[in-house]
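Example 9 (inverse folding). The structure is encoded as follows.
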């Protein structure tokens, strides 16, 4: 068993701005596991908001290298459990390793990941396409560049309603909005009334992740369903979100990979909540992994590779009508 990794800079087609950060290039760590003539790939991007850097991801992977390369594990779930304590402060690195483990594990079995999980790709919901914060004119331009049936609109400005009203003039597509913790409870409730009239499907993370009292009010009075993102990072957060949100957005990199992500999805379903998996502007390695578990979901946000001007990998092909998987076992991604 051999562990290695590569750093890649992912150039974006447009500056990507959300309520708390902007970027033109997204750096990412791609992990490779090799064994018995097979290899698996996994990925995690960096994120300053969560303090995740290339350096600290590499450092914790080095700490875990002896155990990984010992080969004393038989499944991705077992490897994840063995690393739980080492990776407790760096789930991003654990995600990259977990994805690589799933890729390797299913390649050895000669199965695509969705086949191993007994999922049907026909059940994959259409991904949204994300429009980052910019001037209203540029946001309209970004939306028009990609003709898509569902747009996720990043908000958290002083003209949020004006943005959505202007975008609505140019398309009949479904809108989803994501405020990334930028609003107060009063703003969210008031905005929900106008947004509901503008064909918005749901609001994602309107308040700060710790504003539980505010979310009680929003959940009670919002005219739109509300989805947790920053409030639902790890498995223990799912139950906490019940009664405050109608749905959760599981980010594999934040949760620590597919292994805990699947558990979070199943727990949310048991609680009667809808589920989504979102991306962090990964390459086709990370996006392909998401696609394999997407049949489980009500919604999916896996447009990350579509936002790149250059992708160091290839994997699934996404159109509004369907997701096409490569004729390769595992997650189907490969570096180019």
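The amino acid assigned to each position is listed next.
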């Amino acid at each position: 068993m051999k562990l290695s990794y590569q750093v890649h800079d992912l150039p974006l087609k447009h500056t990507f701005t959300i309520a708390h950060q902007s970027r033109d290039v997204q750096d990412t760590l791609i992990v490779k596991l090799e064994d018995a003539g097979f290899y698996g790939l996994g990925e995690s991007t960096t994120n300053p908001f969560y303090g995740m850097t290339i350096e600290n991801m590499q450092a914790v992977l080095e700490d875990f290298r002896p155990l990984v390369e010992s080969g004393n594990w038989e499944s991705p779930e077992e490897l994840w459990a063995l690393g739980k304590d080492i990776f407790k402060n760096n789930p991003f690195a654990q995600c990259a390793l977990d994805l690589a483990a799933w890729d390797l594990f299913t390649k050895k079995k000669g199965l695509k990941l969705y086949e191993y999980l007994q999922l049907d790709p026909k059940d994959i919901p259409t991904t949204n396409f994300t429009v980052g914060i910019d001037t209203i004119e540029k946001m309209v331009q970004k939306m028009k560049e990609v003709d898509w049936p569902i747009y996720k609109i990043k908000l958290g400005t002083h003209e949020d309603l004006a943005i959505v009203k202007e975008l609505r003039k140019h398309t009949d597509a479904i809108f989803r909005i994501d405020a990334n913790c930028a609003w107060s409870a009063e703003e969210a409730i008031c905005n929900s009334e106008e947004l509901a009239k503008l064909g918005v499907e749901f609001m994602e993370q309107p308040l700060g992740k710790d504003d539980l009292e505010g979310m009680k009010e929003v959940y009670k009075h919002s005219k739109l369903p509300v989805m947790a993102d920053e409030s639902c990072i790890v498995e223990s957060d799912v139950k906490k979100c019940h009664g405050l949100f109608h749905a959760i957005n599981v980010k594999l990199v934040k949760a620590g990979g597919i292994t805990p992500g699947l558990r979070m999805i199943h727990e949310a379903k048991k609680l009667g909540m809808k589920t989504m998996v979102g991306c962090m502007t990964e390459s086709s390695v990370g996006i392909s992994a998401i696609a394999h578990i997407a049949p489980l979901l009500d919604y999916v946000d896996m447009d990350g590779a579509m936002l790149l001007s250059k992708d160091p990998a290839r994997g699934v092909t996404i159109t509004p009508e369907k997701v096409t998987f490569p004729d390769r076992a595992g997650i189907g991604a490969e570096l180019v």
